[in-house]
Amino acid sequence: MTDDASGLTLVSLTGTRYRFDPGALSLEFLTTGGPGPVGRRYEALHRPADLAAWLALSRLRLDPARVEVDPQELATARRLRDALWRLACARTGGRPPSDDPADFDATPADLATLNEVAAGAPLVPELTAEGSRRWALPARGGQALATIARDAVDLFSGPYAGRIRECGAHNCHLVFVDTSRPGQRRWCSMERCGNRHKVRSLRARRTED
């Protein structure tokens, strides 16, 4: 899995801003939208430039001015993302609400999409004079997608495959991989769902008292 320092600032439907780190680049990509009404509500990839802009916010931290994305790569991005949603739901056993249950049923076509994109040329890593890693630019959107797909292959086949989870809140469907040593992560973010659970628990105890 791509393990650069990461975390996205998300905004809930009520306007609350919170930090979310799903633990893997490929799961980070799921925040751009997806199948079903919830995915369409949060759809972020409308134009090729939207993919370049998201790559700048992701843990890849690519300069959007140096990433070229064409309409075909944008279509591939959405196809890969939707396939990753279904493959992740197959792992977690959960699924976001949808009018069509098949929206989140993983199929052989989803696996084929993942492998097809992963077979493309990925981003090229470089070592800086300071000893850190960066990605060689300029680059194509397709290279970033291949890197995302390869991250998913590593995740789904690696030691943390059994720790891919859906947030424990009943009305939150964000997916993350629990890479903590105890393996007890329940919430997408302690700032949001974890804190709301604490507040509800405290109110329930006060009511009982």
Can you put this structure into words, describing what you see?
The structure is a single chain. Helices cover 43% and strands 11% of the residues. The strands form four sheets. It has a two-stranded antiparallel ribbon. A hairpin with a 5-residue loop joins strand 1 and strand 2. Helix 5 packs across helix 6. The chain starts with 7 loop residues before the first strand and ends with a helix.
Specify the structural class.
alpha+beta
Helix and strand run: EEHHHEHHEEEHEEH
**Overall mean pLDDT score?**
90
Distance between the termini: 47 Å
Strand order of the largest sheet: 1-2
Quaternary arrangement of the chains shown?
single chain
Helix content: 40-55%
As residue ranges, the low-confidence spans are none
What about the largest sheet?
2 strands, antiparallel
- Number of helical elements: 7
Hey, roughly how much beta strand do the residues contain? 5-15%
Spatial extent as radius of gyration = 18 Å
Question: How many β strands by DSSP?
Answer: 8
Shape: globular
